[in-house]
Model the fold of this input.
Amino acid sequence: MPGYVEEELRGYLECGILCFGFGRSICTGCGQGFVVAFSCKGRGVCPSCNGRHMAQTAVHLADHVIPPVPVRQWVISVPKRLRWFLANRPEAIAALTKIFLAEIERCVVMADGDELTLDLLPPALRGDRPAVPMPGRGGDLDSLARDLVEQGMTTAAPGDDNLFDRIVSRVERELIAQMLAACDGVQLKAAARLGINRNTLRKKLLEHGLEDGDDAA
Done:
């Protein structure tokens, strides 16, 4: 048994019992006194201490943390097989929480109104199959990419040694420009749809000369 588990159990067995320590208070007015047994202050098996911690945390959040505005509560649940893996790995919990919050923020940005629907989640999280490429003016996406590369290679000068950067940069610039147009110039929303952060998008805008000084939020 891990040492912290044994320590938690031993503390629970001594919690609230006067013979293991107590504090005494006396009223200076009437002289009446009373004693209060020490608690284990545990966060695992002691129902009394757990209840007190929850009540104190709720009061602190309501009075000092959560502002008087509408609040949404999100609950994350992981499969039982992963719970034991996460129990002793705070770094894994932190990474999972970061991913969860990032997805929630992305859904809030992508939503047209106050309602968040499942279609805002990535297909992998919804359990959907990968989308079938839709035919375009020059065929599917793979065919368009091949045509673009072939055209870039055939039109390149014999001594052109910067073909990779030129083609990739041109595609990147067009993608960013069209995404910004589709998002009505809102950079935060465009960055979320592109899967990059806003600072990266702003850097790309400057690189490709797409920054017009209108920094839409």
The beta strands are 22-26, 33-37. The chain has three domains: 15-71, 78-131, 141-153+160-207. The mean pLDDT is 80.
